[in-house]
Amino acid sequence: MAQFIRLVRPIGDENIEDMDDYSYKAITGSVQVMVETEYDPDRSSAEAGEHFWAYHIEICNLGQSDIQLRSRYWRIVDGMGRVQEVRGRGVVGEEPLIEAGDCYTYSSGCPLNCDSGIMSGHFEMEADDGSLFEVLVPSFSLDLPDRIVTLN
User: Fold this and answer.
1) How many helices (DSSP H) and strands (DSSP E) are in the chain?
2) CA 144 to CA 152: how far, in whole Å?
3) Which of 60, 85, 109, 139 could make a disulfide contact with 103, Cβ separation 3.0–4.6 Å?
4) Is 121 exposed, middle or buried, given 0-12, 13-18 or 19+ CB atoms closer than 10 A?
């Protein structure tokens, strides 16, 4: 069972290197996944209704044996309610081996034709005995930097 924790980073602290900077965190078994997002105005065009967010993910193997990331699944819901699903091998062209006690970090992005959205998903991992298991990624929001967010 996964444990979800929503962390809030102090405004203006842009140091992504610090583990405490991650805004979203989930723990599934002995694997911790942390996510930080940022709006990329250089890759966006508000006039054309095109928006781009970068997301940074850190996967930490808190267990006693090595694991390997084999695939990913994303469910992206934009602010208009449109759903997009993405499945594929590995992440950013890699299927990283994450040794016991180590972390793997990568960055990617999500374009939307809307000014907000939510991403959720999971990674499929392979244990050192060859068995497969899912690790949940916490749901994370894609919001404009100055937008006031109301949770219902």
Assistant:
1) 0, 10
2) 18
3) 60
4) buried
Residue 70 CB-half CA count within 13 A: 13
| Residue 40 zone, left/alpha/beta (φ > 0; ψ -120 to 50; rest) | beta
In the chain the first and final C-alpha atoms are separated, in Å, by: 25
Per-residue pLDDT tens digits of the chain, which is 152 residues long: 444 333 333 333 344 344 445 589 999 999 999 999 999 999 999 899 999 999 999 999 999 999 999 999 999 999 999 999 999 999 999 999 999 999 999 999 999 999 999 999 999 999 999 999 999 999 999 999 876 655 55
